């Protein structure tokens, strides 16, 4: 069964949908929509460095993403707010990544591959790495759920309940880095950030509690992966962007349903 | 019995020294109010006390096993985060439905359990935060300007609720307030803060202290300083309206 490339692509997409949906909820709640972009762009810088020095892409991307995330946490709330910092880091790391590729001379590296990826080329080994990463991320999020949620609501409430918000922020940063590191080569930066933000945003009008929102986001992510792959197969459209299109359609439908329900 | 103390507490935010050599303590069952002008370090003192800020020097001491209920001044809940009052009260620890109902009742908002947090009015929100603090079974309840954004009847009702809670839960209350006239009737002890402790003691003692009058009014008596404050406020208010 795993010999079929469509099956492998589906499993890769499902894994990523499972991990990105709950993470994406936290990113939306914390108003850090650029965080996904910044991390994914930092990953391109990581890929360039890894190829230039012939070291593991996975390890380099993971480290670069963790450094980027830590910088955001350290610097935010000082002179700049989070959105400004993320804007600087997202575009900065993309630009430095592209410059690094040119200077260090990695002819086999086409940055476009890392923006849209190629989910149809997923190998069995890729699948193992993706699902191992997904398992770690889901484990971390479920384990820290209450603490993450409290720290997201208000830092001082967290302190008063003996929760350290900086530690919870670090866990989120680490989860993001893992998701990006395991999947950037396969699905690309565009799909990762889209899968973070859009299913979570689509789930919002249908949800009354944070847990329901995370579950609906997972469902929307899964349905979008199936729909996008199917459309890509039938209409011969690019696969990653087709999946993103499906999430956007889900977002529109959810908002229409949500406002009809409020009106009625 | 002493619940918490600060000894020679100095707190810096960035390079600015916000609190300098502050000594204070809070005793079982008392209502202690911190007053002071804007930027005098009132909120900083509370945040240092709950551990959200680390002292640059000096010490914070809690009675071992002290339960603190904390009500922050203002809490913005992002509307993208859907959460009912019920769920909010069960964070980070799961609470029994009975306990939640009792806490909501004690905070005077027993009917709001199924409402979305983002749709509450300012006063309702403040009371839900109070209910959440009560679920800790606090020996010390800390409130940062609990009446921000409330009108006069609203804040009077809030202070009555706080006194009621003090006797129901037999806890100490430490709060920050701007409303000097209310402070005097509702507190056992007052600390007047302006980066350091200017003066402290019973409301009557503080009201007649020269340091207090220097901060809050130029009248010859503390009571007059309070009266003048109230009077000035109403006068300015009417005046502005007339001008518009």
Automatic annotation (TrEMBL), chain A:
It is found in: Cell membrane. It is a multi-pass membrane protein. The chain crosses the membrane at residues 6-29, 41-72, 84-104, 129-151, 171-200, 212-235, 241-260. SUPFAM superfamilies: ABC transporter involved in vitamin B12 uptake, BtuC (SSF81345). Its main location: membrane. Keywords: Cell membrane, Ion transport, Membrane, Transmembrane, Transmembrane helix, Transport, Zinc, Zinc transport. PANTHER family: ABC-TRANSPORTER METAL-BINDING PROTEIN, HIGH-AFFINITY ZINC UPTAKE SYSTEM MEMBRANE PROTEIN ZNUB. Involved in the high-affinity zinc uptake transport system. Belongs to the ABC-3 integral membrane protein family. This is High-affinity zinc uptake system membrane protein ZnuB. It comes from Parasulfitobacter algicola.
From TrEMBL, chain B:
It comes from the Bacteria. Keywords: ATP-binding, Cell membrane, Ion transport, Membrane, Nucleotide-binding, Translocase, Transport, Zinc, Zinc transport. Pfam families: ABC_tran. One of its GO terms (molecular function) is ATP binding. The keyword Cell division does not apply. Residues 1-219 form the ABC transporter domain. This is Metal ABC transporter ATP-binding protein. It comes from Parasulfitobacter algicola. The lineage of its organism: Bacteria, Pseudomonadati, Pseudomonadota, Alphaproteobacteria, Rhodobacterales.
């Amino acid at each position: 069964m795993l010999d079929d490339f469509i099956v492998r692509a589906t499993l890769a997409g499902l894994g990523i949908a499972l991990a990105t949906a709950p993470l994406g909820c936290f990113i939306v709640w914390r108003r850090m929509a650029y965080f996904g972009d910044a991390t994914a762009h930092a990953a391109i810088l990581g890929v360039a460095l890894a190829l230039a020095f012939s070291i593991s892409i996975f390890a380099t991307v993971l480290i670069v993403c963790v450094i980027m995330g830590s910088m955001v946490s350290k610097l935010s709330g000082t002179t700049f707010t989070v959105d400004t910092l993320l804007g600087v880091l997202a575009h900065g790391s993309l630009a430095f990544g592209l410059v690094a590729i040119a200077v260090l001379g990695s002819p086999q590296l086409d940055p476009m591959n890392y923006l849209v990826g190629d989910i149809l080329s997923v190998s069995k080994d890729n699948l193992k790495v993706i699902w191992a990463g997904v398992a770690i991320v889901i484990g971390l999020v479920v384990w820290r759920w209450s603490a993450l949620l409290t720290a997201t609501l208000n830092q001082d409430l967290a302190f008063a309940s003996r929760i350290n918000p900086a530690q919870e922020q670090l866990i989120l940063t680490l989860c993001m880095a893992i998701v990006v590191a395991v999947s950037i080569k396969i699905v690309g930066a565009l799909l990762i950030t889209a899968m973070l933000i859009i299913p979570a945003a689509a789930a919002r009008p249908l949800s009354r509690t944070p847990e329901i929102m995370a579950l609906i986001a997972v469902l929307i992510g899964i349905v979008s992966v199936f729909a996008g792959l199917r459309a890509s197969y039938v209409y011969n459209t690019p696969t990653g962007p087709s999946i993103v299109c499906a999430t956007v359609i889900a977002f529109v439908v959810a908002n229409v349903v949500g406002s009809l329900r409020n009106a009625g | 019995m002493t619940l918490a103390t600060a000894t020679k507490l100095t707190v810096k935010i960035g390079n600015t020294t916000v609190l300098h050599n502050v000594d204070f303590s809070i005793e079982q069952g008392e209502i202690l109010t911190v007053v002071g002008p804007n930027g005098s370090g009132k909120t900083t003192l509370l945040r240092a006390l709950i551990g959200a800020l680390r002292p640059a020097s000096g010490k914070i001491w809690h009675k071992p096993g002290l339960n603190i209920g904390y009500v922050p001044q203002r809490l913005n809940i992002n509307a993208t985060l859907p959460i009912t009052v019920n769920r909010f009260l069960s964070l980070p620890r799961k609470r029994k439905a009975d306990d939640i109902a009792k806490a909501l009742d004690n905070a005077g908002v027993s009917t709001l359990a199924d409402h979305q947090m983002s749709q509450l009015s300012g006063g309702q929100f403040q009371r839900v935060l109070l209910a959440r603090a009560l679920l800790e079974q606090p020996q010390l309840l800390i409130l940062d300007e609990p009446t921000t954004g409330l009108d006069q009847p609203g804040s009077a009702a809030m202070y009555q609720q706080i006194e009621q809670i003090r006797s129901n839960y037999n806890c100490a209350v430490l709060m920050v307030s701007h409303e000097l006239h209310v402070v005097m009737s509702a507190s056992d002890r007052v600390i007047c803060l302006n980066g350091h402790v200017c003066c402290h003691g019973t409301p009557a003692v503080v009201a007649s202290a020269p340091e207090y009058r220097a901060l809050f009014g130029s009248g010859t008596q503390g009571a007059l300083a309070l009266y003048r404050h109230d009077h000035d406020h109403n006068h300015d208010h009417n005046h502005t309206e007339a001008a518009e």
